[in-house]
Amino acid sequence: MSQNSSPAWGTASRVSAAVLGGYGLSYASTAFLSTFLPMARADRVAVASLLCFAVYTAAVIYVFAARSAARAWIVLLGMGILLGLATWLAGDYAVRP
Amino acid sequence: MNLRRAMAGLHTWGGLLPSWLLFVIFFAGSLACFDKELERWMRPDLPVAAEATAASSLSLDQVRDWLLSKAPDAHALYIHGPAPRQPFWWAGYVPADEGEFQSFALDPVSGAPLQETVGGAFFFSLHYDLNAGTPGLYIVGMAAMFMLVALVSGIIIHRRIFKDFFTLRPGANGQRAWLDAHNLFGVTGLPFHLMIAYTGLAIFVSLYMPAGVQTAYRGDAMAFYGDAMSLFHREETHRPAAPAASLDALLADAQTRWGGAQPGWISVEHPADEAAVVEFRREGRTRVSDYQWTLAYDAASGELLHEQTPYAGGYYVYTWLSGLHMAQFGGHFVRFCYLLLGLAGCAMLVGGLRVWVSKREARGGRGLVLVRALNGAVVGGLPLASLALLYGNRLLPAQLVHRGRAETLVFFGAWALVAAWVVWRRHRLGNDRRMLALGSLLALGLPLLNLLLTPGNSLLASLPRGDWALAAIDLALLVVGLACGLLARRRPAAVPAPRRARRDALGEGA
């Protein structure tokens, strides 16, 4: 928590980072793995989807372990944007059989 | 911030928030392990002789014709014949407008519909969607995510995980003893709890996480399932159907192809259409991943259109994980283990809630009255409401219209009554003892009621004929009743707390 914000604000920020940011990151990771895993299309989707809850859990744990709420937001958003961008750039590579 | 302290806060608050919901899910899921046995207990109008033979005089064609006489333009028909744990027919249809599924339990001898009941399926549905449809599925999913986080943070804060496992101090003060109990059940059940939370989420992953299908299939879920589980589908032509082939003859063909296995659900897609398709699914109940080996036939010519290939790769992993959750692979032994582990989960939740309460009883804290009231309303209310449902099942008139809905009303009505009583008495002591005593009376009364109203199903009849599936429910009720009675007698009226703190706790909210 940064020094110029109240503990309540820091906690609220962490909770929303965990719930929303965590879901966003697990969404992006599922899209990324569904695109890039070296498997057949249906297998990529199944494996990537089944892993999403582990990603979500790890993200929530990280958010509360992080040194500050701001840092947690930056890491989650950064990773989510990177994964999402890679998926978007891959284009139709995602729908290969 | 210190990692362990951060995780302790996460565990305390992230664990407290969903714990009443998780108690409902765990309790209902534990009962749902024996949903078919409960269902049989809740159908006292089932003929006993039929169970002895398990052979039905009805044919598949008769059941199909009965369904078509009720809904000639049905979108789809579903039929399940008698099975060892379910000695009656299920027959149902999806109406032409694809509205709510209509299903009927049929007497295996006469073919007449049995009296309506929510049956053991009530607890199954309460377990996964709180009987609230799709919104309920999302709420249960969120609770399961909270549980995963609470489990992982619980492991991190528990530095002496092995040593504490052998520590139980029932004589210690309230908080310490409840913490020991919470740790004991939490640590013994940990592999099960991790598995059951994760696999429970996995079952509805397509609902919770659509990203994969949206990315790699551009949102076409049917194409994904076509690839993953080799499903067959034939569109309607909107031309009338030719006379249908005999379902019994097609089933005989399917069973030859399966090497004699028993059928599970049998369906007829758009039966009134020229493109009608009959599908037979194999009842596979010995492996974790239940490969259904679905055979699709043309409903008129009887030509085999499609044979499902075994699940492979990622979808096999999915069916294996969901099979692990649903406990249909190892017979009664596995079901019983899941029941005990599920109840251990309930005990862990109750222990955790009591730690929260006794910690704040000792030093005062906000929300104490609310948490205590919720504990009583949910931990006490749900089991009492479940017993009330079984009373409703026996006492509601047999021919009541919407009898199933009336049973549901009895369940939620009883629960609301208990909750209101707990809230009314929130500042008084001894609520737990009174609820235990009431539970004891209700549970002991049920086998007696069974004897008075439906003697053919009572212990005096089921035990001599070796009908253990039926007798087990009555016996379990007797055990639960005796255990609650003993606890109600032995339990001290209140956990002693320091005087000043108790005054704070009682004064709060007054």
From TrEMBL, chain A:
For this protein, the parts annotated as crossing the membrane are 12-33, 45-66, 72-91
Pfam families, per the entry: DUF3649
Q: Which UniProt keywords apply?
A: Membrane, Transmembrane, Transmembrane helix
* Superkingdom, taxonomy of origin: Bacteria
Cite the InterPro entries for this sequence: DUF3649
Q: What is this protein called?
A: DUF3649 domain-containing protein
UniProtKB/TrEMBL annotation, chain B:
Q: Which domain of life is it from?
A: Bacteria
Q: Which UniProt keywords apply?
A: Membrane, Transmembrane, Transmembrane helix
Q: Does the keyword Hydrolase apply?
A: no
Protein name according to UniProt: PepSY domain-containing protein
TM stretches of this protein: 136-157, 184-209, 333-357, 369-392, 404-424, 436-456, 468-488
InterPro entries associated with the record: PepSY-ass_TM
